[in-house]
């Protein structure tokens, strides 16, 4: 299978021919992953979490942040171009939104399995949290690895990104638990 066909099937924007869309796609995945992780951590920390509550909170939270990102794309396009997005602009915007929606699939399946009794809820929440953390770490590492920085500088920037990521998680968790 050639590269163009593989990309069209995966719906992942092409980094070389669509750098702005690719960047927005990754940014949306990062926002949605942080949101999903914060929700999973808050539900995990509650006294008596219920699987259906965890599932719905995660699904609605990630869908909400993704739709908000989509709306912000429409508004920013209208503000900068002084017109509604053109027909050709809708497909890339929907692909970017798909990056956010995609982050909820595996954690939602895990929580659905807990809801029907196949998995323990605590285990499902732990797996979902690990998945989100791994996603964020991989995206961060890919960004650092592709940079033109020296190896020590890459490690320093990656450590900074990890620290900032932990700060974001702490702030989101605190905000959702007060």
UniProtKB/TrEMBL annotation:
The chain crosses the membrane at residues 30-48, 54-75, 96-117, 123-143, 155-175. Keywords: Membrane, Transmembrane, Transmembrane helix. It comes from the Bacteria. This is VIT family protein. It comes from Microbacterium aurantiacum. The lineage of its organism: Bacteria, Bacillati, Actinomycetota, Actinomycetes, Micrococcales.
């Amino acid at each position: 299978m050639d590269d163009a066909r593989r990309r069209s099937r995966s719906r992942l924007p092409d980094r070389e021919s669509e750098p702005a869309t690719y960047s927005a796609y990754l940014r949306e995945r990062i926002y949605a992953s942080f949101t999903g992780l914060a929700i999973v951590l808050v539900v995990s920390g509650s006294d008596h979490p219920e699987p259906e509550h965890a599932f719905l909170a995660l699904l609605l939270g990630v869908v909400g942040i993704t739709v908000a990102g989509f709306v912000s794309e429409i508004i920013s396009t209208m503000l900068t171009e002084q017109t509604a997005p053109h027909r050709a602009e809708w497909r890339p915007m929907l692909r970017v939104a798909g990056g956010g929606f995609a982050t909820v699939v595996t954690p939602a399946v895990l929580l659905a399995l807990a809801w029907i009794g196949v998995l323990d809820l605590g285990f499902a929440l732990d797996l979902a949290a690990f998945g989100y953390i791994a996603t964020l770490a991989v995206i961060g590492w890919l960004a650092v690895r592709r940079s033109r920085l020296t190896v020590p500088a890459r490690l320093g920037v990656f450590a900074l990104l990890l620290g900032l990521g932990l700060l974001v998680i702490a702030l989101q968790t605190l905000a959702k638990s007060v």
